[in-house]
Amino acid sequence: MKRLNANKKAGDIPLLICVFLTACFGCLMIYSASSYTAQVEYGDSLYFVKKQIIGLVLGTAAMIGACFLPYKKLFALRYPAIIVAVILLVLVFVPGVGVTNYGATRWIGFGGITVQPSEIAKYAFVIFTAAFFCKNYRNLKTFRGILPVLCVGLTLCALIIAEPNMSITMCVGLLMLGMIFLSGTSVKTFILILIPFALAVPVLIILEPYRLQRLSAFIDPWASPKDEGYQLIQSLYALGNGGFFGTGLFNSVQKYRFLPFAESDFILAIMGEELGFLGLTLFFGMCGFIIWRGIRVAKNCNDRFGFMLAAGFTLVYGIQVIINALVVSGAIPPTGLPLPLVSSGNTSLIITMASMGVLFNISRSD
Amino acid sequence: MSVCLTITFLFCLILARLLYVQTIWGGALRLKAADQWNREIPVIAERGLITDRNGEVLAGNKTTYSVFVRPNAVENAEYAATVLSATLGIDAGKTLEKISGKKISEVTIARQAEKEKIEKLAEYNLAGVYFARDNTRTYGYGDALCQVLGFTSSDGGGVSGIEKYYNSILSGVDGEIIYSTDIVGIQTENSAVVYEEAEKGDGIRLTIDLDIQLAAENAMKSVYLSSKAKAVSCVVLDPQNFDVLAMVNYPSYDLNDIPRNDSEKLNLLSRNTAVCDIYEPGSTFKVITAAANIEEYLKGNSKAFSNSYVFNGSRTRTVDGTKIKCWSDHANGKHANQTLSVALNNSCNPCFTDIALALGSQTFYKYLQGFGFGNVTGLDFGGEALGMLVPQTAVRDCDLARIGFGQTVAVSEIQLACAVAAAVNGGNYYVPRLLKGVVAPDGSVTENPAVLKTKAISSEASAILSEMLEGVVKEGSGKHAYIEGYRVGGKTGTAQKYEDGRVAQGKYVSSFVGFFPANSPRYLALVIVDEPEGVYYGSTVAAPVAKEIFEDIIKIKNIPPCS
User: Do B7 and A281 touch (CB under 8 A)?
Assistant: First the structure.
């Protein structure tokens, strides 16, 4: 604690710039992907962009704020954060507060604002775990030492899966594994945890019949082109139409209401259509840069809490980008997961930008 | 380090997958997706023209329009329905119902709407309403040749006659207007409109000669009225190649005002009876019996009669215990001392019974088959009748005796016309045809060549027969068809009709088959008057009609009399 405020470094400015540019690029892509649908459904072609720009402003403010907030203060928030997260996740199930969309209750509404608690839960879990491992680093080699992290993680997973939201559950699960792996636990303990996780996946799939349908649709989407296979087919059409060089910005055809969730979970497909494989490669280059800078921040941090926090936030971002890309390209079965910083959705945007601010703050210290 | 490697690996995996989807698989995906991106409106091809042998248009086209509505793209359905019904003259309520169904992506509101209506409709510029070229068939000569030409359905396909038989040649290839639309069919703001032009159908040039057709129509119409017949019909052939020059069936109907709502009436009036129906020919069939005898005699068959042979003058013959009578009473020296030539002049039944029996079924059937009886002629027209001929294995002498003078046998008009044409043209039986050639849109013509089917008799036999038939018109029963200065040959026929296997009292088919010039026939006409009232002999009812037609042909073709 004594090094707090000491040895201030310049911080990772390129990371911030990159995050901000990606978020701005997101607004542009949301406009392109949603203007037609927004005009038809809401009578305002800027409907989604306007919301996203508010998110961008708030997110930028949150990011800048986080830049100046000493990250070590988050240590004290480890219990409040996780408690708030759990309360919010429970609130989803309270009638009148929880908001149901597309057959799943994943949002809570205050007045006109809706918040997706599971987005918050991921970050709360990172803060809690980083703090826990920092405090109990001596006991990490044993299973018992990491048991509390497992308990908290599984509680969150249980609450999120009940919404249901398989994709964020998967994210939290992977995040938990990543955090445990990075904590420096023994290989034996890690494998001990890994096995039940691997077994849980098929069990979860069998429990909910709609997942099985999605899985079969993933194997052959054209077997049910109007039902389960529809989303994936439309995503592939968009990517296929883009080809190597793309159709050019604003020239998507799939945005004419063919591709559902074009401005949110499947915005990557519209990007692939308009900007082509070339554009996507550049975009992933940008994502890769953010992840690389995040890992670098973590590595360069001498503080155990800072290390775990930076690694955790980077993991949250990285896992989502990768799963989203795999879903959109039809490499894994479709699940609803936003592309961080780009997909429409303010909760995700603000909190992701804020987490990047924290990364910057970590990079400045020491 | 391991984290970095894992992430790099995953990104490589994603990029590899995207590269595959976007480039290797991309083309196939685009092709599949094109189905959902585009909506097509058909542009109906201009139908090929049907003309007579000289290029006179018998079936032409008028450009009209079809109107389509995409219900999802309509902004105000009630307003649109009002405008559509007012401009197109259709029912407003039904239109509203049609364009309110959001589940159907496209409905056809009108076909073959006139240009003026569409121009009015276009002024409203209604969203979701589309129109494209359609085709309306027009027939320049109303009811002339109507059963042969046939007509098209409301969607433009041929449903009867030549329109049906040569539909694939006439119809051409429809084009398309392709619009890119959103998922429910609303045209997108930067919609690329692709116009694929329709390909005009090829034209059909018929063997019909319009002038002869119209002359025949007039002659047939007047005999229909004067004889108060049930129906009349006529075939005019060119005996040199079996081109059908005219084909008339009356009563008929106006091709520009088809009685589509009365299907029974339409079926009756649109039937090409000259090709599709059969009748008992009676005495006109004696031409074939005579031809068989002459040919056999020339070949040296001792059973055949020589041209100077005098037939037994009795009025009756008894065959298989049944008595066959001549139509004439043979009293007061009538039908006495008859050679074949005189027998033809008198149309004396017993003489032809003698020939049929003398030749025997095997020989006689060889000629019946050679002249195409019991089989289709192969005319390029749908639904040709086979005729009725007792199979050779089942034929009894009493049947054979009657077939000799045209009873116990049924033929189609085209069958008999072709048989007589082959008997008098030198013995050549061609496949009759209505198609003279196919005319490509660039004007080039692919001719449909005449096909010689068989040699029915020798040219010597044919020449002798022609001369005898010329005699029939000069001094025999066919004299009402005689034209001074022109060598007309022919044979009359008067057949009793049968109903439920019994002779129908007072019902006759009066017919005449004539041709000229007898030495090298260019025109052959078979005239049928079905159930005339009053006078019913072919010689008095049908022969004058053939004469009228021949006289008109002489005028039209400006044929000089022979010296």
Answer: no
Q: What is the pLDDT of residues A238-276, one digit of tens each?
A: 999 999 999 999 999 999 889 988 999 999 999 999 999
What is d(CA B247, CA B277) in angstroms, rounded to the nearest whole number? Answer: 14
Residues of B with Cβ-Cβ distance to A242 under 8 angstroms: 22, 26
Where does residue B438 fall: left (phi above 0), alpha (psi -120 to 50 degrees), or beta otherwise?
beta
Q: Number of residue pairs across A and B with CB atoms under 8 Å?
A: 103
Q: Report the distance separating Cα B430 and Cα B419, nearest Å.
A: 10
- Inspect the interface and report whether the beta carbons of B17 and A258 lie closer than 8 Å: no
What residues of chain B lie within 8 A of the CB of A330, using their CB? Answer: 17, 21
d(CA B524, CA B236): 5
Count the Cβ atoms, other than its own, within 10 Å of residue A41. 11
Q: B198 by DSSP, 3-state: which?
A: coil
User: Across the interface, do B33 and A276 touch by the CB < 8 Å criterion?
Assistant: no
Residue B184 to residue A257, Cβ atoms within 8 A? yes
- Selected residues 70-109 of chain B with any CB under 8 Å from a CB in chain A: none
CA distance A202 to A210: 13
Pairing of strands B129-139, B322-325: unpaired
Whether domain B210-557 has CATH 3.40.710.10: the reply is yes
pTM of structure: 0.72
Return averaged pLDDT per consecutive 10 residues of chain B, 563 residues in all. Answer: 83 92 91 85 91 94 91 86 90 88 81 90 87 90 93 90 95 88 77 83 96 96 94 96 96 91 91 94 95 95 93 90 88 88 93 94 94 94 93 92 93 96 96 96 92 94 95 91 94 88 86 94 96 88 95 95 78
Domain ranges for chain B, please list them: 39-88+106-174, 210-557
Give the pLDDT band of residue A236 (cuts 50, 70, 90): very high
Judged by a CB distance cut-off of 8 A, whether residue B5 touches chain A is no
Residues of A in contact with B29 (CB under 8 A): 236-237, 239-241
Residues B403/B406/B410/B415 CA torsion (nearest 10 deg):
110
Terminal CA-CA length for chain A: 11
Separation CA A142–CA A161 (nearest Å): 28
Q: Which tokens is B484 given?
A: 């001074």
Q: What is the mean pLDDT of residues A31-36?
A: 93
Q: How far is CA B378 from the centre of its chain?
A: 12
pLDDT value for A8: 63
pLDDT number for residue B227? 92
Residue of A nearest to B18 (CA): A329
Residues 162-201 of B with CB under 8 A from A: 180-184, 186, 188-190
Class of domain B39-88+106-174: alpha beta
Looking at CA atoms only, how far is residue A264 from chain B in angstroms?
19
Contact A331 B13 (CB under 8 A): yes
Q: What is the CA angle B422-B426-B427, rounded to 5? A: 45
CB B244 within 8 A of CB B473: no
> What is the spatial distance between Cα B235 and Cα B546, in angstroms, rounded to a whole number?
10
Q: What are A's interface residues with B at a Cβ cutoff of 8 A?
A: 36, 40, 178, 182, 236-237, 239-244, 251, 253-254, 256-258, 272, 276-277, 280-281, 284, 287-288, 291-292, 295, 311, 318, 322, 325-326, 329-331
Q: What is the pLDDT at residue A3?
A: 46
Cα of B81 vs its chain's centroid, Å: 43
pLDDT band at A130 (very low <50, low <70, confident <90, very high): very high
- For helices B2-19 and A304-328, angle between their N-to-C axes, nearest 10 degrees: 20
Which residues are paired to B133 by β-bridges? B65
Give pLDDT, residue A4.
47
A256, A258, A276 member nearest B22 (Cβ): A276
- ipTM > 0.95 (yes/no): no
